[in-house]
């Protein structure tokens, strides 16, 4: 938790005032037993009604002052903890957004969601309770012991014996529960992952009639979570009984020896009642502290998980970038050049996903990329905008290494339309404007027309509400809107990563035709399994097991590249091949 205290830097005043007002409240509370002793020893003993009323008014005043102090402390603690939670959540979200695809895949989306929600909430609750009770409870315990000592030093020895014993019990419980709460949070990660998979893949689950299987898997994970929570709950539940037993034993001893001292005249009846009240205050303070320990234990477990994410540094950064804008492209310099590029997804991988890839692409050219499943097509184009960093070699954009460009400059010039069309909740207009924030409706319609999406959008309108992930649109509609979103940005390099797979052949043909017509100042990469989608490209890159099997035009590759010839034979008729 200490490492996360930096998120309280804007709430230093509230973090100081909250505990101060809590201790002021505790101070008023410590005077109550003394006033009660005065009422018994003076007012009741002398039957002085006016004195009883006067001291009663003092009690009411102490209660009101304590209430005001408590409410003020609650306000400052709540403001500081809410501000802490907001700052922590925002910082964690920003840090996660800086992760490359590699870190996101390794950690898991479900785990990240749990840490952004449940773990941050636990840490926020922990801060709130620490500001309210962490200083108050020890202050009450110490203050009650001092006040008891001022009444009778011998009876105060009971306080001094039992208070450390209670503290030891709390320590034992805390040390046992911290590891369990870590496991609980891990199980919550698993619940989040399974829930996310089931809700997003519900159609697949139903298609294969796997509802019962998934329900069983979810139930098993839930049972594991339940077992860990019950174990933690049982151990934590020992806190209150253990502390109550010790404090009640101490109270019995105070009354027992207090009666003896009263009989001897060494202490008054009111002072015995005051000592019992002080022991009750210690009891309540330690019970509150025990419950606080449980909350802090949960917060500590969550804080460790949050810090684990902060400790992971993004493998891709643009800290050393010096170019923040590409002002002009030269026709004599390749817009994109791969020089002996190799890439492995893991450092320990025996085989590279890509090996010794070299080619040049100039402004206005259309490049087709084809190959079998797992040949490295998507990996090849994902290296261009630096979604991953190459293992060996060099990639140049307009003659400069892509690592010299900031992410914003690089990805402003390179737009990728991925295999899975991803739309966001909002209107069609909002989704298209992701490509260009200030795009006018004319620009949006122009992009929609080029993407062959204008026809169905005219029926629905730009204000049509798209549901989460575009579930109320067909696959082909989502793909065309994704292409339009990229086109409205007017990128210098457009990458279509199998992004027309859901389109019929006629629509796909019209799309390729319009893209080629508007391709004079734009370089286009078309990744596809279809030969018909790339055969008219200026040149085609054929990949086989991460290596280039051939580069050239359609006709040239049919003669010189066996891999390409096999692909064509599997898709084209003899007449088309001739």
Commentary on this structure:
- 63% of the residues lie in helices and 10% in strands.
- With 578 residues, the chain is an alpha/beta fold.
- The chain folds into two domains: 2-311, Up-down Bundle (ABC transporter transmembrane region fold), CATH 1.20.1560; 363-376 and 413-577, Rossmann fold.
- The strands form three sheets. It has a six-stranded mixed sheet with strand order 6-9-10-3-11-12.
- Strand 11 (539-544) and strand 12 form a beta hairpin.
- The longest helix has 49 residues, at 49-97.
- The model has no long low-confidence stretch (mean pLDDT 85).
Topology:
Blueprint: H1 12-44, H2 49-97, H3 101-107, H4 109-134, H5 136-151, H6 153-200, H7 202-207, H8 211-237, H9 239-264, H10 269-311, E1 336-343, E2 354-361, E3 366-371, H11 377-382, E4 392-397, E5 400-401, H12 407-413, E6 414-417, E7 426-427, H13 428-432, H14 441-450, H15 454-460, E8 465-466, H16 475-487, E9 493-497, H17 505-517, E10 523-527, H18 531-534, E11 539-544, E12 547-552, H19 554-560, H20 562-571, H21 574-577
Parallel strand pairs: 3-10, 3-11, 6-9, 9-10
Antiparallel strand pairs: 1-2, 1-4, 4-5, 7-8, 11-12
């Amino acid at each position: 938790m200490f490492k996360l205290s930096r998120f309280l830097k804007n709430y230093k005043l509230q973090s100081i005032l909250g505990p101060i007002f809590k201790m002021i409240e505790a101070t008023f509370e410590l005077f109550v037993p003394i006033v009660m002793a005065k009422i018994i020893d003076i007012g009741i003993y002398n039957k002085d009604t006016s004195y009883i009323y006067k001291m009663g008014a003092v009690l009411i005043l102490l209660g009101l002052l304590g209430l005001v102090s408590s409410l003020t402390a609650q306000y400052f603690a709540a403001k500081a903890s809410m501000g802490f939670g907001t700052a922590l959540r925002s910082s964690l979200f920003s840090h996660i957004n800086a992760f490359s695809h590699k870190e996101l895949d390794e950690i898991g989306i479900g785990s990240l969601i749990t840490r952004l929600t449940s773990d941050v909430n636990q840490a926020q609750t922990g801060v709130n309770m620490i500001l309210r009770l962490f200083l108050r409870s020890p202050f009450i315990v110490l203050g009650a012991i001092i006040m008891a000592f001022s009444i009778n030093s011998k009876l105060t020895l009971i306080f001094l014996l039992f208070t450390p014993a209670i503290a030891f019990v709390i320590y034992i419980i805390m040390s046992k529960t911290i590891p369990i709460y870590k496991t609980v949070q891990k199980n919550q990660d698993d619940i989040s992952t399974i829930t996310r998979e089931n809700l997003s893949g519900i159609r697949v689950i139903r298609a294969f009639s796997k509802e019962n299987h998934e329900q069983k898997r979810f139930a098993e994970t839930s049972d594991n979570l339940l077992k860990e929570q019950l174990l933690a709950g049982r151990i934590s539940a020992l806190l209150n009984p253990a502390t109550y037993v010790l404090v009640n034993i101490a109270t019995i001893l105070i009354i027992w020896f207090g009666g003896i001292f009263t009989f001897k005249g060494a202490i008054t009846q009111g002072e015995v009642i005051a000592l019992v009240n002080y022991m009750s205050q210690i009891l309540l303070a330690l019970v509150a502290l025990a419950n606080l320990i449980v909350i802090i234990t949960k917060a500590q477990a969550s804080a460790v998980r949050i810090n684990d994410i902060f400790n992971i540094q993004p493998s891709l950064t643009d800290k050393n970038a010096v170019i923040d804008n590409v002002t002009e492209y030269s026709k004599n310099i390749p817009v994109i050049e791969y020089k002996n590029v190799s890439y492995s997804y893991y450092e320990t991988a025996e085989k590279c996903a890509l090996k010794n890839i070299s080619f040049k692409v100039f402004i206005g050219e259309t490049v087709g990329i084809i190959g079998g499943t797992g040949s490295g097509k998507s990996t090849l184009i994902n290296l261009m905008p630096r979604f991953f960093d190459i293992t060996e070699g060099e990639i140049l954009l307009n003659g400069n290494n892509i690592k010299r460009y900031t992410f914003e400059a690089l990805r402003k010039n390179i737009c990728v339309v991925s295999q899975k069309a991803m739309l966001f909740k909002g209107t069609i207009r909002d989704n298209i404007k992701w490509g260009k924030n200030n795009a006018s409706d004319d620009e949006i319609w122009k992009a929609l027309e080029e993407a062959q999406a204008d026809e169905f959008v005219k029926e629905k309108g730009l204000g049509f509400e798209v549901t989460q992930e575009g579930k109320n649109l067909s696959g082909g509609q989502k793909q065309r809107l994704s292409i339009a979103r990229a086109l409205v940005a007017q990128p210098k390099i457009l990458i279509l990563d199998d992004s027309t797979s859901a389109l019929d052949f006629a629509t796909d043909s019209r799309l390729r035709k319009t893209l080629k017509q508007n391709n004079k100042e734009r370089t286009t990469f078309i990744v596809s399994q279809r030969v018909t989608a790339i055969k008219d490209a200026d040149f085609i890159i054929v990949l086989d097991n991460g290596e280039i099997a051939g580069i050239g035009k359609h006709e040239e590759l049919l003669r010189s590249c066996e891999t390409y010839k096999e692909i064509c034979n599997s898709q084209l008729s003899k007449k088309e091949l001739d």
